Every structure is written in C-alpha cells, then in structure tokens.
Amino acid sequence: xxxxxxxxxxxxxxxxxxxxxxxxxxxxxxxxxxxxxxxxxxxxxxxxxxxxxxxxxxxxxxxxxxxxxxxxxxxxxxxxxxxxxxxxxxxxxxxxxxxxxxxxxxxxxxxxxxxxxxxxxxxxxxxxxxxxxxxxxxxxxxxxxxxxxxxxxxxxxxxxxxxxxxxxxxxxxxxxxxxxxxxxxxxxxxxxxxxxxxxxxxxxxxxxxxxxxxxxxxxxxxxxxxxxxxxxxxxxxxxxxxxxxxxxxxxxxxxxxxxxxxxxxxxxxxxxxxxxxxxxxxxxxxxxxxxxxxxxxxxxxxxxxxxxxxxxxxxxxxxxxxxxxxxxxxxxxxxxxxxxxxxxxxxxxxxxxxxxxxxxxxxxxxxxxxxxxxxxxxxxxxxxxxxxxxxxxxxxxxxxxxxxxxxxxxxxxxxxxxxxxxxxxxxxxxxxxxxxxxxxxxxxxxxxxxxxxxxxxxxxxxxxxxxxxxxxxxxxxxxxxxxxxxxxxxxxxxxxxxxxxxxxxxxxxxxxxxxxxxxxxxxxxxxxxxxxxxxxxxxxxxxxxxxxxxxxxxxxxxxxxxxxxxxxxxxxxxxxxxxxxxxxxxxxxxxxxxxxxxxxxxxxxx
Length: 606
Description:
This protein is of the alpha+beta class and 606 residues long.
C-alpha cells in the first residue's frame, strides 16, 4: 500500500476541473501574506491548505499565525497547534520551518470536520512581535442587464457593470471573459475577453458585448461574464448573466415542423443473459417546443415473449434535443437459428411530422455450429511475466466484488479499440516499449519479461478508459462501468458504452463480437500481480503535481466500487491525482491507445 503523500511542491498545484477544489481569496497583508485553498471537500469534512508568504526585505523568525475558524481541525502538517480558544486558532512552525526567508512561501495543510466557514482574520508575525492591522483590499463585483436581441443583420450591446467596493490608491486590474449560457458565441453574440483597468479613485467600469440579431422565433437566451486574476483587489461577485430578450413574434408555419425518423439496428441475441437493442429516434432539426411521438414494437420474424420483450410508449424530445433512444429487451437462447427481426413503428406525432416511422431490429444468432470461443485457458495471466506485491483483496489468492485477474484477453479488447480508432493492432512488446520510452515505469531499463508485463498492464488500462468520448469523460463513469461489468449485466454495460463512448464504438463492439472481451477487461483488477506498484509504477509527472502512477489509480475503486481514484485497498483518494484536470486525464489514457505522448495536446473541446 502506498502512503498518502503531502509533498512540499503541492503548495501551488492546480485543482482538477472535474474534481473541483474551491479556492477563496483572502485579504493579504501588504508584506506578510496568508492565503487559503480548499483542495478536497467531501461534504462531512475537507482538506485545506494555508500558504504563508514573506515578501518583506527581512527574514521572519519564529513565525506564528492566528486566525478564526469554526470547524474542528482534526490533523495538521507542516505546523503545530499552539492553542484554540473558541473559534480562534494559534499555530506555529516546526523546528525545520519556523523561519520564513525573504521571498519564501510555506504551506500548512490540515483535515477539518463539517461546517460552512473558511479561515479568516489572519495575523502572521514573529513570536513576541506586535503585528500591525491587516489592510483590506477593495472588492470587485459584476452585474449584467437584459438587452433586446434586435432584427437580423443588426447588433445591440449588452452592458456588464464592474464595481469596486471602495476607491483604491493603486491601479486595480482584473481579467474578464464571456461564456455561453443558452446563447452561442458567434451566432447570438460576439465573444469578448480582456483586462479591465481601474485607475486610482475609479470605482465603476462597463464592458460592452455585441449582440447579433436574427429573425428566428426562439426563447430568451443568456450569456455570462466572469472576472478572474485580480490585482490589488479581491473578487466577491465574479460572475454575471445578461439575458438576450427575443423580439421575433411570428409563429413558424406548420410546413417547417421538424421531421422524426427512427433507425434500424442489429446485434447478437446472447444466451439468456440480458441484452437489448437501443433504437435511435432523431429529429432533422431542433424544435423550440417539446416534440412527442408514440412507438410500439411488432413481430417481424421474431416472436414477442420468445425472442424479444414487447413494448410501447412515448418518445419526448425536449426543446433543443434532437436524439432519443428506445429500449427493446432481447431474449437470448442457445438454439441454432436464422437471424430474426423485430419492428418498431412510430405514430401520432405532436410538434413534428414522421419521415421514416419504421425501424427493423435484426437479432443475429450467435449459436452457430462453429467451435465455441475458447475460455480463459487461451489467455496468459500477467503473473506469467513476473509478480510483486499485491493488495489484500486483489492478490493471487482472492478477489472481491467480481474483480478478476489481468490476462492477455485485455490485449484483444485493446486492439479492438485501436482498430475502431483507425490504428493497426499492436503487441505487448510494442506497448511495453512505448511505456519505457515515456517514463511510464519505475526504471528506465527493462529486465527479464518486463516489456511484456508492462505492455499488458498498459494495454488493459488503455482499454478500460480510452473508449470514453472527450466531452463525456468523468471519473465517476469509470467507477460505474467497472462496477456494472463486475456485478451487473452485459446489456447495461453496453448501454453505458453507447451513452458515454466515442460515437459508434458500442455498435462496433457488437458488430465485431468484441463486447465480451471488452467487458471482461473492465472486470480486471489493476492491483493484481503487483505490476502497478513494481515495473508499471510510472514516474512521469503529470501537470506538475501527480505522477503517472497516481493517475493510474483512476481505475482503482473503493471496496464498495462506488468511487474512483482510490489508494490501494483503503477507501481514501489518491490525493495527487485529484489535482489533474479531466482533459489531461482522458488525454493520458488515450495516449495508451494511440501510443502517443502521454502529456501531448489536450482534446479539442467543442
């Protein structure tokens, strides 16, 4: 088990976009500054960090910090608590860090219990000195105002007002940028960003954002403007919304109602386990009002109750939504038979017309006279290449919660993903060589069967995560689909792949009979055989705070398999990995599939 790390360099690490850490700007002293950040908040408690900075021309010896904080501090590192009176804490440095050099910064981390407040009223001084009062900086806030959209070809202006709470004797600057709400930059408004400057004594500034008019009847739309990176001030109300009021009142004629269609699907029937077809119904364009259409299954050559589950219902497209799924359960059997069909027919549309109202689902028989797929005996266990320390519930002797050993079946799933992405199949030697070349191991030199073992480990990791679409990735999905693979049904796993994977990947697995090896790979326990903490213990630094080994913990789940990024067999997070942004994490795992740069360009977001 790896001990939880609290390295000094974590003082300035950046929080992950997905695992959001809340940073509160406090009021610094002119020369001795204290700032606070929440690095992890789990509701009933949090991990926080104080940063003490000495910008004076003299060394600060025997520093002591007092502050108010209503939460109970349960543990602290890089300092010790001198006293607590009510909500006032006094802390001081340890023998090795009690002196703060000129220009130096010192981090103090702690774990606190529940509550709502943040530390405040900081007083930092040398023991025995009398600190001067902390001057307060002016506070920045921004407000937005509604604006009429205007006619097509015209433009109006949305005004955002930025205010300082009091005049400043210094020049105050703050960055600003617009972002989409329900309005879209380029079609509804012109995106704007820049730096706003308040000269001494100035307290109000305005930012004008150009609004692009049109003749489309639509709902009112919104855009936002956010403030960031202030100098000589703090931000308290840093985000405002402007509403673009629609002024086009003509009702659209019935002739331009959207058209709804439903597409054919096909897939194997299975052998009695849960399987299903997900028929996709689409509108040819978005509607500004909800659209509904009824659907019902009927026999083709398949029989309801024997080959599929009959179903009826109503598909609802909320305003703006153009695609919805219809679920039809498939009843597998072991009989050798011809392919069979089930129909889904649309009827009674409201707010749309029907363009193609009949979809055919083809149930492919997978009970042929061909030899059955070989069992696990055809695959090689990773311990064939060597082994080291495992974890108590993931070692050689026992697995819990449906976890399984790592075998070369993972390479089959990995190459299915590579083929889907347009790459030729790879080998364990090629993947292992890539890992050693990119510092994804604990040493630069491979010995014995290290290349094959490391190659199998990273082929498994790439297959587990690399299928996720860039804009759908979330760490919790990785936990949910592994838990579903181990404890749920194959049908539910494939439904998740269809929902969160690269478009078309789920159908590709079905069409190429690769869903079983893919699901079996999701079941594999990354700690098995000890490779994660031996040769595959990656030393590559990711975003300045975490190592490749830390990020690899994305696929390590808690005992109940509800949470990702767990540390070994204990149910607490792999702390450094929580600071890595979601785009960087998914790029890291996708590099295992493409055999590209693990720290290469981030995915382009739409």
